[in-house]
């Protein structure tokens, strides 16, 4: 099973706090912009939830 | 009937501790009591993106509620006025009494306010709550003359937002540079230059001694005798801890709630309460990553991280006390958690015009700041030292580089 992840890029300010919580899902690229994988293994759920918690802009969502 | 875990304060820290209690297996009752009428919401955008937007509403900043915390009893619009730690109960403003098994103080801060000889109120603002932001947004019309008293993060961010909305903005503050206590003179000076380049005026080493106007504020009087025209006066001069409700107990609440390294409230004899905790802005805790001194940390990540630590700790305490078949395992986990203690790396950011600041560590401890990458006029990274030891890092832009410092402390 997988989870689907969505980031509202109109809200995201590329603070990168999510990167520490779910490094397999989120990263800052060489231009300091957020990149993420839209679908991840279920085992990432707790990490992605932690990333949602620490997002200053509350821009990260798990899509049902 | 089982007494609930009672969380006083229904903001981010309160929400995060409730979530952690459930995540780590506590299934008993939880009550969260908050004096605002709103369910937990995200405060940082209130001085920035939300204030700059067309719509300021609870929906734009509300935290999502997870299924696991659907059964938390939220008591909103009620204020706890006193606590009796000996008898383990709380009394609210409406006279209702709540008994608790574990008490978690998450009552946060309220803005300090000035009192003037002409102490008129119309046109005066602070920015802490959603209701504050709604009231201020309505006053920030193009051409409005805005005076911000205080040049900390909130003052500078609010000034930048008001300027972007087309207001004429002046910052008045007693220091020489904005935010210099935390950022040091180089970065503080650069922030002032960039604010000035965008048209924000500064009256530094000055304060406001009185207000001018009758029904509504029309101006402010500075201590050098200058009168500044003013339609909107924003007081951004720091905060008080909401801890009066804990007074009269055998704990130290002179500046927040003094706790041990596991956020347990400390008695005056130095021992810690095992069922009374403080989290978020009011927790005054030692952080072994830096030193042994207890201090409050008003940075973004502290409510979340302190809430998680206490939620896990309390869930384990209750599991051990319940004495199930996994009690020994839970006791061992509790011992490991408390032996390690709460040791967060403080993190904050600030956006003012094109200045996108990101920092890790306790910059205010530093006696020296060194430019290590880039240049001040563009993007740059500074390292902060206390007696030669790295205590923080901050950058304008260059986030990937600044992020590399997150795990650089305490080794």
Descriptive overview:
- The complex is a heterodimer of chains A (64) and B (411).
- Chain A has 64 residues and is an alpha+beta fold.
- Chain A is 23% helix and 30% strand.
- Chain A has 2 helices and 5 strands, in the order E-H-E-E-E-H-E.
- The model of chain A has no long low-confidence stretch (mean pLDDT 93).
- Chain B is of the alpha/beta class and 411 residues long.
- Chain B folds into 3 domains: 207 residues, FAD/NAD(P)-binding domain (3-Layer(bba) Sandwich), CATH 3.50.50.60; 125 residues, FAD/NAD(P)-binding domain (3-Layer(bba) Sandwich); 50 residues, no CATH class.
- In chain B, the strands form 7 sheets. A 6-stranded mixed sheet of chain B has the order 3-2-1-7-20-19, with helices on one face. In chain B, strands 9-16-10-11-12 form a 5-stranded parallel sheet, covered by helices on one side.
- The radius of gyration of chain B is 22 Å and the shape is globular.
- The N and C termini of chain B lie far apart (47 Å).
- The mean pLDDT of chain B is 96.
- Chains A and B meet through helix 1 and helix 2 of A and strand 23 and helix 9 of B.
Short description:
Chain A has helices at residues 17-21, 45-54; strands at 2-7, 26-28, 34-36, 39-41, 60-63. By secondary structure, chain A is α+β, with helices and mostly antiparallel strands.
């Amino acid at each position: 099973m997988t989870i689907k992840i969505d980031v509202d890029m109109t809200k995201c300010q590329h603070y990168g706090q999510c990167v520490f919580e779910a490094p397999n899902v989120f990263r800052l690229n060489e231009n300091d912009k957020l990149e993420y994988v839209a679908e991840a293994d279920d085992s990432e759920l707790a990490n992605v939830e932690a990333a949602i918690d620490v997002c200053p802009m509350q821009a990260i969502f798990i899509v049902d | 009937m089982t007494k609930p875990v009672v969380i006083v304060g229904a903001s981010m820290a309160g929400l995060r501790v409730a979530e952690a209690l459930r995540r780590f297996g506590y299934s008993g009752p939880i009550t969260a009591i908050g004096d605002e009428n709103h369910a937990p919401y995200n405060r940082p955008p209130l001085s920035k993106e939300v204030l700059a937007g067309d719509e300021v509403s609870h929906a734009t900043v509300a935290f999502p509620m997870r299924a696991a915390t659907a059964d938390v009893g939220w008591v909103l619009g009620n204020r706890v006025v006193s606590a009796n730690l000996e008898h383990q109960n709380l009394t609210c403003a409406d006279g209702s009494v709540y008994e608790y098994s574990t008490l978690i103080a998450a009552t946060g801060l309220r803005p300090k306010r000035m009192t003037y000889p002409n102490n008129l109120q119309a046109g005066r603002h602070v920015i802490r709550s959603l209701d504050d932001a709604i009231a201020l947004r309505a006053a920030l019309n193009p051409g409005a003359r805005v005076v911000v008293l205080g040049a900390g993060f909130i003052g500078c961010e609010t000034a930048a937002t008001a300027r972007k909305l087309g207001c004429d903005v002046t910052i008045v503050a007693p220091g020489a540079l904005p935010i210099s206590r935390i950022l040091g003179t180089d970065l503080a000076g650069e922030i002032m230059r960039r604010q000035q380049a965008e048209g924000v005026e500064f009256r530094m080493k000055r304060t406001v001694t009185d207000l001018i106007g009758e029904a509504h504020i029309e101006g402010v009087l500075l201590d050098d005798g200058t009168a500044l025209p003013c339609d909107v006066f924003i007081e951004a001069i720091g905060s008080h801890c909401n801890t009066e409700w804990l007074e009269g107990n055998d704990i130290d609440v002179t500046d927040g709630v003094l706790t041990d390294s596991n956020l347990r409230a400390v008695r005056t004899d130095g021992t810690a309460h095992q069922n009374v905790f403080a989290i978020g802005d009011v927790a005054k805790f030692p952080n072994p990553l830096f030193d042994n001194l207890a201090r409050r940390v008003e940075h973004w990540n502290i409510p979340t991280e302190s809430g998680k630590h206490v939620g896990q700790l309390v869930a384990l305490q209750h599991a051990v006390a319940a004495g199930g078949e996994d009690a020994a395992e839970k006791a061992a986990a509790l011992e490991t958690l408390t032996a390690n203690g709460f040791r967060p790396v403080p993190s904050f950011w600030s956006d003012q015009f094109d200045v996108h600041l990101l920092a890790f560590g306790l910059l205010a401890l530093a006696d020296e700041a060194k430019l290590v990458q880039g240049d001040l006029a563009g993007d740059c990274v500074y390292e902060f030292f206390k007696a030669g030891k790295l205590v923080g890092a901050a950058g304008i832009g260059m986030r990937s580089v600044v992020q590399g410092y997150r795990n650089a402390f305490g080794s």
